Each structure stands twice: as C-alpha cells, then as structure tokens.
Amino acid sequence: xxxxxxxxxxxxxxxxxxxxxxxxxxxxxxxxxxxxxxxxxxxxxxxxxxxxxxxxxxxxxxxxxxxxxxxxxxxxxxxxxxxxxxxxxxxxxxxxxxxxxxxxxxxxxxxxxxxxxxxxxxxxxxxxxxxxxxxxxxxxxxxxxxxxxxxxxxxxxxxxxxxxxxxxxxxxxx
Length: 174
Fold this sequence. Notes:
elongated, mainly alpha, Reverse transcriptase zinc-binding domain-containing protein, single chain
C-alpha cells in the first residue's frame, strides 16, 4: 500500500472513494458490484455529496438566505429560473428577480452608499423616498401600474415558494 502522502493513481482513487463515502477499492476488488449498480451508487453518492456541500456553503452566505435553498435537490431548477421561458426578455427578468432575491440588484441607495453619499439615495422615478428593495418592489408610486396587475400572484409566490421571511419583510410593514 502506498503512503498517504503518495501521488500515485491508487492513492487518488482511495481519496475519491473516501470523499464520496463509497466502498474502498479493496472491497470493490474483493466483491465487485454490477456495472449498473455501481453507476447508480456512484451517481447518488456524488450527487448527495455536492448538494450537501452546496447547502452547507449557501447557509454561510447572507445574500442567499431568501432563496429557499434548503429544498434544493440535484437536477431541480430553482423556481425563479423555472419561470423564465425562451424569450430574450424573460431571461433578463429572471436575472433581475434573482438579483433582487439575493439583494445584489443595484438600487439608488446602493449607488449612494458606494459613492459616499455623492449620489442621492432618493428614488429617481417617484422622488419621494429612498430607493431600496422594499420601495422598488412595493412602494414606488410610479411602478404601481406594472405592479398591480400581478401583486396578488407575487404575494402567493413569495409566501409559498420563496420564503415566509421575505413575505413578512415585504408585506407586513406598517
């Protein structure tokens, strides 16, 4: 057997089987599974490892706390991306939705903060209050016509699919 510091091919195989919690190479040589059983075992172990790692790393990122990643499964698409079709603008809309959900969409308050208050944080559309995520999505009077046509379906989607926390933040204000 090679030492643990070895760069041999066999040692790399051992490291990979341990990483994905698979049978050891020795056990595989003694009692090899069928090809289809082995492929199924490898696929499920690798998928389980990576989805677990993704969820673990996502839990450490504050920008992802509104995306409901806890229900993520390998091979499934997040609802934000599921809603976009093949038209050019639907993909752009999905990008904006995901940026708003991750709080990475640059709004006027962000521009103001990044410019050390050289740029005003007031909404350039309505001019009444600071343009932050809540204002942009729910409060800007200039966006009422665009918003009113689907506000109820937006409320349902956010509460049922995305996150109750986001729903409370957006719709339970005084």
